[in-house]
Design brief:
Blueprint (H helix, E strand, L loop, with lengths): L8 H104 L5 H31 L8 E4 H18 L3 E4 L5 E4 L1 H17 L5 E9 L2 E8 L31 H12 L3 E6 L3 E11 L9 H8 L4 E5 L3 H14 L3 E5 L2 H8 L6 E5 L8 H12 L5 E5 L4 H10 L3 E3 L4 H12 L1
Parallel strand pairs: 2-4, 8-9, 8-10, 10-11, 11-12
Antiparallel strand pairs: 1-3, 3-7, 4-5, 5-7, 6-7
Catalytic activity: ATP + protein L-histidine = ADP + protein N-phospho-L-histidine
Keywords: Coiled coil, Kinase, Phosphoprotein, Transferase, Two-component regulatory system
GO molecular function: phosphorelay sensor kinase activity
């Protein structure tokens, strides 16, 4: 729209008004645009301030988290050190804890062979039960300590289940008989691969648990072959385990509400689960109310058969009688206990000594038939050192047994390398007799 000189005045005025309106409109839009940009600028500044504030808060939170992580690391290190200290203490104290208990068991076993009236027999049975309870609790605590240790080592080897069943039958027959229960072990020639010490612990705890929670009927132990796996099965005719309790029974100190005063601390199944997890043996549980419970442990089968050793009760009378046993034991209570069990019960000639030097002097030029040595002797002396010295002096590998309260894998390795059976304290006379028969047969 342009002004022309030729336009009349009213036309020029109208054009000027329109031009003015257009210019005012442009100025208004320009101001609006400038106001929007200013608002955006102000919003950007405010947002930047918010970002800075949140960044400072995040940095503070990260610093707090780092501090908490450092505190947690310190607490975890302290807890791990406390656990290691506990393990070291239990390992160190186990010998001193078990030694008097082992001697007491030997004396009590010798006492049962003497003539007694009914009251004395009852007192002896009650003492045996008390010792059994203490022994089980100590074994449970020591086993849990070992299984919780990160340095635990297993010694996998062929384990004949028939021999294991025979030992369990001898061990638990009195307990089952006292409750009026039938305890049956199905004959088997199956051989599996496992750690023999911990496999026996697993089986012991399962059988013991079955007997404790069964009031009538019985307990049946056997093995079922399924492909390359042998399922060690323990079935009882007890009241069963409710579904809500089937997970918690494997925790420490957990017992069923219907135990009715059944003795025990609720540690057996916890040991079973720990040992099975460490060894890679699957475990399953099935139960039906008022119809019993079945525990199964999967074990890898090994081809081949195993020659069964003669039962100690059948062979000890003629295999051990008159044989010379050289005992190397520095504890006076244990020495006297060995004298009574070996000499008076088994009919052997027991020569007791306190260390390697005394054992060599006692042997002279007539080597004993077998050496029974405690691992921990005075000072740096050990039972293995005594056996090596006696064998060297005799010029032959004298059969020997090492007895220890220390559950140390290094001791087990050294005994295995020397072909020497390892017997854990507290010593059971029946188990000792069985080992002696096996070595001297």
């Amino acid at each position: 729209m342009m002004l022309r000189d030729s336009d009349p005045p009213h036309r020029q005025v109208e054009k000027l008004r329109r031009i003015t309106d257009v210019l005012i409109d442009r100025i208004d839009r320009l101001e609006e645009t400038r106001g929007s940009a200013w608002s955006m600028f102000q919003a950007a500044v405010a947002l930047e301030q918010e970002v800075l504030a949140r960044t400072r808060q995040l940095e503070q939170a990260m610093a707090d988290l780092s501090q908490r992580n450092r505190e947690l690391a310190v607490a975890r290190a302290a807890a791990e050190e406390a656990n290691r200290s506990k393990t070291r203490f239990l390992r160190a104290a186990s010998h001193d804890l078990v030694q008097p208990l082992s001697a007491a068991r030997l004396f009590l076993s010798a006492l049962t062979d003497t003539p007694m009236d009914e009251q004395q027999k009852e007192l002896t049975e009650r003492l045996s039960g008390a010792f059994e309870s203490v022994e089980q609790l100590m074994h449970a605590v020591l086993d849990i300590s070992r299984l919780d240790s990160q340095r635990i080592e297993f010694h996998r080897q062929p384990v004949p289940l028939g021999e294991l069943f025979r030992r369990l039958a001898a061990e638990f027959a009195p307990l089952a008989e006292a409750k009026g229960l039938r305890l049956s072990f199905a004959p088997t020639d199956a051989v599996v691969e496992s750690d023999p010490v911990f496999l026996r612990r697993i089986a012991q705890n399962l059988v013991s648990n079955a007997i404790k929670y069964t009031n009538r009927g019985g307990v049946v132990v056997g093995v079922r072959r399924r492909g390359a796996t042998g399922w060690l099965s323990v079935y009882d005719s007890g009241v069963g385990i409710p579904a809500v309790d089937r997970n918690r029974i494997f925790d420490e100190f957990q017992r069923l509400g219907n135990d009715n005063g059944t003795p025990g601390m609720g540690l057996g199944l916890s040991i079973v689960r720990r040992a099975c997890n460490k060894l890679g043996h699957p475990i399953s549980l099935s139960s039906e109310a008022m119809r019993g419970t079945l525990f199964r442990v999967g074990l890898p089968l090994i081809d081949g058969t195993h020659q069964q050793h003669p039962k100690a009760s059948d062979a000890s009378s003629h295999v051990l009688r008159g044989r010379v046993a050289l005992v190397v034991e520095n504890d006076h209570g244990m020495r006297r206990g060995y004298e009574m069990i070996l000499g008076e019960r088994l009919g052997m000639v027991a020569r007791v000594t306190g260390g390697t030097a005394e054992a060599l002097a006692t042997m002279g030029e007539e080597p004993p038939d077998i050496v029974l040595a405690d691992y921990n002797l005075e000072g740096d002396d050990t039972g293995l050192a005594s056996i090596l010295a006696l064998r060297d002096a005799a010029g032959r590998n004298i059969p020997a047994v090492v007895v220890t309260a220390h559950r140390d894998p290094e001791i087990a390795r050294r005994c295995a390398s020397m072909g020497v059976p390892l017997l854990e304290k507290p010593v059971r006379p029946a188990e000792l007799s069985e080992i002696l028969v096996r070595l001297l047969s």
